[in-house]
Design goal:
Layout: H1 3-20, E1 34-44, H2 51-66, H3 68-75, E2 82-89, E3 95-104, H4 107-120, H5 135-147, E4 152-162, H6 172-181, E5 185-190, H7 202-209, H8 217-230
Parallel strand pairs: 1-2, 1-4, 4-5
Antiparallel strand pairs: 2-3
Helix pairs in contact: 1-5, 2-4, 2-8, 3-8, 5-6
């Protein structure tokens, strides 16, 4: 194993330890025995995420959790509950937990989770110290969170949001392979970006290397979340449009 790979794995372990130190979200059942879906929202906080893109990501998730469509989807599940956690990432080892595992069974709990994300989520400030883009790190950490989910979920889902390609850490296809082998669904949504050096087909890159992609972020994430909660049959090959 190369020194670079060892450094990446050490950083991953360090990031997971930071997650384990978080405090359960108040006002909701933090540890569920059974839910319809356990979902990790893994949101890009790298140097390319400016104020506009940070707001787009944060408000997209907030709006989805507050929407009637998502509330109906949760209520229509076999259990009628989901569990979510919201993390922010950039380069290997750079990780922040905004919302630890939180059970949502009604619109009030969904609104409380949305308020926490809105209040504590990324604002796009301080870009210079934000780091590179490690999609592989985001997937690996998300997989670790699902591995340690303290309950039973009918579906285990990783939702990655980013505006760039993998440029730090392990190859993203290796991380995807490991997660899919465990039966985890990986969805991804692309935040529009047109700067030089970035592929002109970021959704295509996500479909090929991560899985997923979308043009209208706020609408797409709401639709995607409804599909993830409502779908009766788990799938490891879902593409969001």
């Amino acid at each position: 194993m190369s020194h670079a790979t060892l450094r990446s794995l050490r950083s991953l372990v360090s990031g997971v330890c930071l997650l384990a130190a978080t405090v359960p979200f108040p006002g909701a059942r933090a540890w569920a025995n059974d839910v319809d879906a356990a979902i990790v929202f893994a949101v890009d906080k790298s140097a390319s995420i400016n104020i506009e893109r940070a707001t787009l990501q944060r408000q997209g998730h907030v709006g989805a959790l507050r929407s009637k469509e998502v509330a109906y989807a949760i209520a229509g599940g076999l259990v009628g509950c989901i569990a979510i956690t919201y993390i922010q990432w950039s380069s290997v080892g750079r990780l922040q937990t905004v919302l630890p595992w939180t059970t949502i069974c009604d619109s009030g709990q969904a609104a409380a989770a949305a308020s926490t994300i809105d209040r504590a989520g990324d604002t796009g400030q301080g870009r210079s110290s934000r780091g590179r883009t490690s999609l592989s790190f985001a997937i690996d950490v998300s997989g670790q969170l699902l591995d340690r989910f303290p309950g039973t979920a009918r579906k285990n889902i990783i939702d990655v949001s980013s505006n760039g390609t993998n440029n730090d850490g392990l190859p993203v296809t290796e991380s995807r392979r490991r997660a899919v082998a465990k039966g985890y669904i990986i969805n991804a949504i692309a935040v529009e970006r047109t700067e030089p050096g970035i592929t002109t087909d970021l959704p295509g890159y996500f479909r090929e290397n991560v899985i997923g992609g979308a043009a209208d972020y706020s609408v797409a994430i709401r639709r995607k979340l409804v599909l993830e909660i409502s779908s009766a049959t788990p799938s490891n090959d879902r593409t969001t449009r």
